[in-house]
Amino acid sequence: MDSRHSRALLTVVVLCFGGLSVSLTQTLVIPIQGELPALLSTSAANAGWVVTITLLAAAVTMPISGRLGDLFGKPPVLIGSAAILVVGSVVCALSSDLAPVLVGRALQGLAMGFIPVAIALVREVVPPDMANTGIAAMSATLGVGGAIGLPLSAWVVQTFEYHALFWFAAGLAAVLLLGLVTLVPRVSDARGGRVDVLGALGLAAGLVGVLLAVSKGNEWGWLDGRTLLSAGLGLAVLVGWGFLELGQDQPLVDLRATARRPVLLTNVAAVAIGFGMMAQAIVVPQLLQLPTATGFGLGQTILEAGLWMAPGGLMMLFFAPVSSRLMTGVGPRVALMLGATVLGGGYLLAFFLMDAPWQLALASIVASAGVGIGYAAMPALIMGSTPPAEAGSALGVNALMRSLGTTVAAAVMAAVLSGSGGRDGFELCFLIGAAAAFVGVGITALVPHVHQRAPQGSATSEPAAA
Asked: What residues contact 193, with CB distance under 8 A and at least 6 apart?
């Protein structure tokens, strides 16, 4: 391996480590979620915001960070995201009250903007023959960090005091920050321009309103005034924001480019596949941890359940080379369809095999392999229809759509499990997850053939000429 490839490999390793570090924060507090009211001296409803606020902040920041990367250069935005993660983790580690913990968790969510910017940077800094593998590995970290976060966090909590979770996250973030400063090359990719501040505020306000209604609807009640008001205001703000963006010379999100059929359909498919990924991440751990006295629960501890789920998360990373070969051989469109099909197959497997932990682990591995293929193919589809100057913003929107799918999945699975007691509720969840994945296959099949098959040594195909 020559020096250029060695430097590129080191860059990809640092970026993937960053993806793991920021995505791990999404599941960081799951092992102590039931204990948070006592730990923070607050009510259960207020403690729920420790999880919710991170998801909301992550959804809002991804398209904004992507645009900032296009304007001011991707390395500075990556370094800023890592610094925010350090600060947020330290704030949580030093706090035992609700308010500062919420501030720290919001900052941790803002660091999720690292993901789309890092994926866009991979295409710029690695040789063409490594780009597909680098993009696939970077995309896989979205699922891997969350999957390994559960058993790792459970072990930390059982071994140390709960603040150690946040000190651990701060340590990872500090190592990431050092790696970004010393090992990632400084590319001159800043395009210049102004920041659409009003557009960023409008997008943030609209997304918070809609996602808050979706994430809290099951708890508040779907017809509760708070749910309806939050959703209504959020949608109204987003409509106004859309008109505002269409009139901007330098919008935060180029809605006309986003409305191109290949990009639009890929983003819609991202919602379905994001839904499919999150559904198994929610349903399988619950089924593993339910007492055996229920007749269908498997009686595993939090740590044991996390360990059963961990191989599925690692499978996403192991499938990065497979995803790369698929994108090179048959193109990202077919690869995305194949990934969604495998994901749906994993859910059908879980429907028939849910009587032992190893059976659910097997189904999770199959589903995670599908997610790994699909998550790797989506950025390639987006970048194949987007000019390089807009890659960060476009990938940020795609990451937002995946986040929307995961948020909706969490709400739907919670509603199904609370409304359908017993084994039937879990079986229905698996069928819904399979249906979402197969809907993703159908949507992807409608993506026009504007992407040429990626030749060997090409990161992504170029957009078709108009």
From this structure: 71, 250
- Burial class from Cβ neighbours inside 10 Å (0-12, 13-18, 19+) for residue 235 reads middle
pLDDT in the model for residue 62: 87
Residues 191 and 211 in one domain: no
Instruction: Report the distance separating Cα 268 and Cα 260, nearest Å.
Output: 12
Chain-centroid distance of CA 427 in Å reads 25
User: Are residues 235 and 101 located together in one domain of the fold?
Assistant: no
Residues of the chain with pLDDT under 70: 1-2, 146, 421, 449-466
Tell me what pLDDT residue 120 has. 86
Angle at 408 between CA 399 and CA 433, to 5 degrees: 95
The predicted pLDDT at position 311 comes to: 86
- DSSP string for 117-143: HHHHHHHHHS-HHHHHHHHHHHHHHHH
Same domain? 97 vs 158: yes
Q: Is 227 left (phi over 0), alpha (psi -120 to 50) or beta?
A: alpha
Domain assignment present for residue 457? The answer is no
What does R_g of the chain's alpha carbons equal in angstroms? 21
Quick check: is 27 in a domain?
Answer: yes
E strand map for 352-438: none
**Tokens describing residue 277:** 């990924």
Contact yes or no for 223/275 (Cβ under 8 A)? no
Query: Are residues 215 and 337 part of one domain?
Result: no
What pLDDT does residue 465 have? Answer: 31
CA within 13 Å, CB half, 164: 12
Check residue 387 and report its DSSP letter. -
State the pLDDT at residue 140: 77
User: Residues 361, 363, 369, CA angle at the centre, nearest 5°?
Assistant: 100
CATH of the domain at 280: 1.20.1250.20
> Which run of H or E residues covers position 292?
none
- DSSP letter (8 states) at residue 189: -
Residue span of the structural domain in which 208 resides: 196-251
**Cα–Cα distance between 24 and 150 in angstroms, integer?**
8
Q: Quick one: pLDDT at residue 107?
A: 95
The CA distance from 234 to 297, in Å, is 39
Q: What is the distance in angstroms between the CA of the first residue and the CA of the last residue of the chain? A: 39
Identify the CA nearest to 398 among candidates 81, 32, 24, 65: 65
Write the pLDDT tens digit of every residue in 207-258.
899 988 988 888 888 889 999 999 999 999 999 999 998 888 888 888 887 8
Residue 371 to residue 406: CA distance in whole angstroms: 12
Q: What is the pTM of this model?
A: 0.83
Tokens describing residue 31: 């092992």
